[in-house]
Amino acid sequence: MALYALGDLHLSFQADKPMDRFGRVWKHHERKIEKYVRQIVKPDDTLVLTGDHSWGRKLEECRSDLAFIEALPGRKILLRGNHDMFWEAKKTQRLNEEFAGRLFFLQNNFASYGEYALVGTKGYTFEGPFYLDRRGRVIGWDEKKEEQAKKLVDREMRRLRESFQMAREAGYRKFVMFLHYPPTSILEKTSPFTEIAEEYKVSAVVYSHCHGESRFGDSIRGIFHDIPYLLVSGDYLNFHPALVME
């Protein structure tokens, strides 16, 4: 039994929004997803998909994409991404009821993986706009949008803390934390998300959202304060699921 993660599938079987305009790595990317997931993930493994599953804006427009995910091997756990318009936070329980035994939607709850609780939320981080000098260095940013970003971070932190508390009340003392957005912005070395990861002594922080080579280094990768941080964006991994633990 192993735990894997992969993010940003951006499927569009019904929405007709091909991704290859974002680079060669995205050409027929759904074929890569199916090929590599089937090569790597076994039926008794767990695969956490860290958001941006479908371009469909309503659930009926996502049925084919979710069916594609459902047909992949392993137990599939889905995190909410910024493009997952079909999934409102208040509808998580309804989705879990409809897809019971097939898909699990991770939001304001937790999932079990052996003695670990898998806890996650969409997260948020300030993405600018930033003002650069001629050398490409950040010399300023939109402070009004930064204030709005802080409010969204506070909201996501409340959701995350509630999920950690639910898992702890259920008896869990070991955790893996999942985010869609990166845990820090390009202006930050730490954040509320890194702080809560350290507070709960999580075994790993897994996130996605950072697309394109110029964005892969936007946040923490590797060991930070004794915690592994894994970027699992689809194009970063060329759509190979990343091993989180086994």
- Ends: how far apart? 6 Å
Low-confidence stretches: none
Q: How large is the count of helical segments?
A: 5
Average predicted local confidence, pLDDT: 93
Q: Output the strand order for the largest sheet.
A: 5-6-9-10-12-11
The string of secondary-structure elements, in order, is EHEHEHEEEEEHEHEEEE
Structural category: alpha/beta
Question: Biggest β-sheet, characterized?
Answer: 6 strands, mixed
Q: How many individual β-strands?
A: 13
Strand proportion, as a percent range, falls in 15-25%
Rg over C-alpha atoms, rounded to the nearest angstrom: 17 Å
Helix content: 25-40%
Categorize the overall geometry: globular
Structure description:
With 246 residues, the protein is α/β, with parallel strands linked by helices. Helix content is 25%, strand content 22%. The protein is built from five helices and 13 strands. It has helices spanning 29-40, 63-70, 92-98, 143-169, 192-199, and strands at 3-6, 46-49, 75-79, 103-106, 111-113, 116-121, 130-132, 138-141, 174-179, 205-207, 222-224, 227-231, 242-245. The strands form three sheets. A six-stranded mixed beta sheet has the order 5-6-9-10-12-11, covered by helices on one side. Strand 1 (3-6), helix 1 and strand 2 (46-49) form a beta-alpha-beta unit. The protein is globular. The termini are close together. The model has no long low-confidence stretch (mean pLDDT 93).
Tell me briefly what this model is.
By secondary structure, the chain is of the alpha/beta class. It has five helices and 13 strands.
